[in-house]
Amino acid sequence: MTTASVRLTEVSKRYGTTTVLDAVSVEVQAERTVAIVGESGSGKSTLLQLINGLVQADSGSVEVLGEDLSSADMLGLRRRIGYAVQGSALFPHLDLRANVCLLARLVGWSAERMAERFDHLLALMELDPGLAGRYPHELSGGQQQRASLCRAMMLEPPLLLLDEPFSAVDPITRVGIHEHFQRLAASEPVTVILVTHDVREAVALASALVILRAGKVVQQGACADVLAAPADAWTERLLETQLR
């Protein structure tokens, strides 16, 4: 029986008088890739921040990897969650190896274990080992983004959260990164939640979609099901505009 890696039940989040998420319920099954799609301001990034414990829900419950976030040890839980954002967010004063291995060093991995995992990830993402000593400004945008994915996956997390991770690179580079991401997701037992405004990217990379509009879930389900039967006229327009 497939189990859920993430479950949000009737979750709401407000900032002042603005409701960012309104009674949102989402369930993400283990070892699936799910894309959260919607216009700017629909609540996509806030949803991801709730899952990572960076913000707290005003109401409802959030369960991640079997733990209720209202009582979880967030430091320990975050070590089981990979996180990558737009623009790679690599530390400019650290070379590629130091960036990728940073979290492993902080949690006390042995040098041998770090080296083995680092080499494996570089091979998986087709990054030349000769780049290990280069700093972020010496890498291309695509290399930086692949290095960011390596860092997010360094601790072998069962859950990977991606917030618009590929939007800062040009379209041709993005296609190549998509291929590397798919190789990574296929080779590691990881659940992926991808936030993107790009429906075409979501359909290419995910097996299921969650579509947000103004803080509400308007539709969720397998990509093929959502594309075949949009829930309403707005969803149909969103899909047609980006996929035609």
Q: Helical percent range?
A: 25-40%
Average pLDDT number: 91
CATH topology of the largest domain: Rossmann fold
Q: Count the domains.
A: 2
Determine the strand fraction and express it as a percent band.
Answer: 25-35%
Name of the CATH homologous superfamily of the largest domain: P-loop containing nucleotide triphosphate hydrolases
Q: Enumerate the strands of the largest sheet in spatial order, edge to edge or round the barrel.
A: 6-7-8-3-9-10
Say how many strands there are: 10
Helix-strand topology string: EEEHEEHEHHHEHEHEEHH
Quickly count the helices.
9
Determine Rg (CA atoms, Å).
18 Å
What structural class do you assign from the helix and strand content?
alpha/beta
Low-pLDDT stretches: none
Distance between the termini: 37 Å
Question: Topology of this protein?
Answer:
Elements: E1 4-15, E2 18-29, E3 33-38, H1 44-51, E4 59-64, E5 67-68, H2 74-78, E6 81-85, H3 96-106, H4 111-124, H5 141-153, E7 159-163, H6 171-187, E8 191-196, H7 199-205, E9 208-213, E10 216-222, H8 223-228, H9 233-243
Parallel strand pairs: 3-8, 3-9, 6-7, 7-8
Antiparallel strand pairs: 1-2, 1-4, 4-5, 9-10
Helix pairs in contact: 3-4, 3-5, 5-6
